Amino acid sequence: MIIFLCTTLPHTNSDLWVNIDQMDKEKVKIHGILSNTHRQAARVNLSFDFPFYGHFLREITVATGGFIYTGDVVHRMLTATQYIAPLMANFDPSVSRNSTVIYFDNGTALVVQWDHVHLQDNYNLGSFTFQATLHNTGRIVFAYKEIPIEVSQISSVNHPVKVGLSDAFVVVHKIQQIPNVRRRTIYEYHRVELTKTKITNSTAVEMMPLPTCLQFTSCSSCISSQINFNCSWCHRLNRCSSGFDRHRQDWVDNSCPDETKDKLCDIIDTTYLYPFTTTIVAKTTSRSKEATAGRDTPSTSHPPTSVPTEGKVENKDLERGHADSAVDRMPGTHPLHIGLILGILLVMLIMVAGVLVTVYVYHHPTSAASLFLIERRPSRWPAMKFRRGSGHPAYAEVEPVGQEKEGFIESEQC
């Protein structure tokens, strides 16, 4: 699944680097808390809608560790997923007075710059200066001015080292043992990892968003779209989706995966409802007469409830009659032996099916069947849960309580 086109420019980034010193001083904000603390994050409101994986954001969270968190729920595992990371590492702006975290919003783009920041666990390596620019078109630019060492050599023992993008959806699970208590589990559905060896001085990376299913607002345009995604229309939500986005829980709770199997719009369903139903009933009747082994051919259609129910009863009666006649024709065969053989065959089929399902889920972790099992058995699958002591670096959120003065924000540290 490709949602962003990435272009690495290994030459000078004079065209993509934003010189904040030449911008309007009133719009340039130096965050006082982030510039003097370690592992802190602060919310920043956008003056425009920023499309990220098809979702429009009006608020992001800037972290001291060289990345931007894009999730709605701020937790202690910001480095796990839902990030825009020009260079995520264990940066500590508090170790140097020259280190600052700056952001600038001109109405159509937001620039966040980590200026002269040092690694906490290796200060002597030198300072890093880089920035991320988010455009209202969804275009993302990573620009690097000072990278003293190869990114691949930065230690990830105390903090993850990542360059790229990631997004996920959050699912809320009810805990049956504890009433009125819910657990949030986050599932990453896409990630963009950039080659770290190409990140050097005066380089830039430009990422252009590709179309997603969420941009289609009508059923006809949704099911006829050809954008390398399996787009489906859900009438209950009046939404087009592939099932892999931040609205995943709404998509499942409203039975959209079952509704979108036919991929038909309301007009088509209404026009062909009666003849379609008549055809299915005729097939059901003919198959009930020909049933000899007690098995019906699966159908992708769903006829009215009353008709198939009657058909199933007739099928059972016919199947029972055929079975009795078969036993009468074979007097030397004991019914107990036949039942034992059928039971053994059934157990073997179930075991083979279980092995095949396990292999399929292992090699297709983002398939509909895998997500179905993941959402219903969350404790048996690898997922990032919001629990303490998970081994991820903890980030505290900074909540501004005052007004901005001379490029600084007066706020209390968490």
UniProtKB/TrEMBL annotation:
<feature type="region of interest" description="Disordered">
    <location>
        <begin position="285"/>
        <end position="316"/>
    </location>
</feature>
<feature type="compositionally biased region" description="Low complexity">
    <location>
        <begin position="297"/>
        <end position="309"/>
    </location>
</feature>
<dbReference type="InterPro" id="IPR002165">
    <property type="entry name" value="Plexin_repeat"/>
</dbReference>
<dbReference type="GO" id="GO:0016020">
    <property type="term" value="C:membrane"/>
</dbReference>
<keyword id="KW-0732">Signal</keyword>
<feature type="transmembrane region" description="Helical">
    <location>
        <begin position="338"/>
        <end position="362"/>
    </location>
</feature>
<comment type="similarity">
    <text>Belongs to the plexin family.</text>
</comment>
<protein>
    <recommendedName>
        <fullName>PSI domain-containing protein</fullName>
    </recommendedName>
</protein>
<dbReference type="Pfam" id="PF01437">
    <property type="entry name" value="PSI"/>
</dbReference>
<keyword id="KW-0812">Transmembrane</keyword>
<dbReference type="InterPro" id="IPR031152">
    <property type="entry name" value="PLXDC"/>
</dbReference>
<feature type="domain" description="PSI">
    <location>
        <begin position="212"/>
        <end position="257"/>
    </location>
</feature>
<keyword id="KW-1133">Transmembrane helix</keyword>
<keyword id="KW-0472">Membrane</keyword>
<keyword id="KW-0325">Glycoprotein</keyword>
<dbReference type="InterPro" id="IPR016201">
    <property type="entry name" value="PSI"/>
</dbReference>
